[in-house]
Design goal:
Helix content: 25-40%
Number of strands: 12
Shape: globular
Strand order of the largest sheet: 3-2-1-4-5-6
Radius of gyration: 20 Å
Structural class: alpha/beta
Oligomer: single chain
Strand content: 25-35%
């Protein structure tokens, strides 16, 4: 079996997850790492094996021959240069969310890849969570009937000042929408197997927020077949509840 030769850029928490996934897959092999932090490069090499290591994705693509794919698991800063380097070599990309820091930049990156007919994918791993699989099975096997409305709630206290978290969400536009809600919107389409037709949305920032932009999102979606979903997302939920709560109500049937 021919294995995909992958360059992995970004060796933080998400990058190490990808290193684990790629190392276990018989269909892939990591041929190079890229990260500006020497400690991250050394830590990854010690855990997943020595590879050529570079400070940037651009440098790795320039040096490595026959690259089949680039995984960008790094923060969405300087993405255009990274995507341009891959596109100019015809290298497909898998990019961790958020794709970019704003909608205009995201649209530009998509147009850049499309103009060269180079595949560009955004990793939305919530589709593969155990709770997602369980919910989809209940619907597919008609255990709970065909849903006509749902309530989707995500509540979390994410202190963006924690040393183990990326700092770009503190200053980016709409951190809840771009960092978390994008996962939830994808889940709605995936689990209910319907396309959205319309949305009404409001965002705001609580007074205790450490984020420069809005950390709360409320939306009402209308999907094909008349289904309505009431969505609430919060990065700064404060209570005695669990640190990270994902709750879906299907017409009175709650799944957490």
């Amino acid at each position: 079996m021919t294995r995909l030769r992958v360059v992995l850029a970004g060796l933080g928490v998400r990058g190490r997850h990808w290193a684990e996934v790629l190392s276990r897959s018989p269909r892939c092999e990591i041929i190079a790492y890229a990260d500006p932090d020497p400690a991250a490069r050394a830590r990854t090499a010690a855990q997943y094996g020595e590879r050529p290591a570079f400070e940037s994705a651009e440098a790795a693509l320039e040096a490595m021959p026959s690259v089949d794919a680039l995984v960008l698991a790094n923060p969405p800063i300087g993405r255009r240069s990274q995507v341009q380097a891959a596109v100019s070599r015809g290298v497909p990309l898998l990019i961790e969310k958020p794709l970019a820091l704003n909608l205009e930049e995201a649209a530009d990156l998509v147009a850049l890849a499309e103009s060269a007919s180079v595949p560009l994918m955004v990793g939305l791993n919530f589709r593969y969570l155990a709770v997602t699989k369980a919910l989809k099975r209940l619907l597919t096997e008609n255990v709970v009937g065909r849903p006509e409305f749902a309530r989707f709630t995500y509540e979390r206290y994410r202190d963006g000042r924690r040393p183990d978290l990326n700092k770009y969400p503190l200053t980016m536009d709409q951190p809840m929408l771009w960092e978390q809600s994008i996962h939830h919107f994808d889940l709605m389409r995936f689990v209910y197997e319907r396309a959205p037709l319309a949305v009404q949305c409001q965002t705001w920032n609580p007074s205790w927020s450490m984020y420069a932009s809005d950390a709360n999102v409320a939306a009402i979606f209308r999907f094909e077949g008349g289904m309505v979903i009431n969505y609430q997302g919060c990065l700064l939920y404060t209570s005695d509840a669990a640190d990270d709560l994902l709750c879906v109500d299907l017409g009175g049937r709650r799944i957490i």
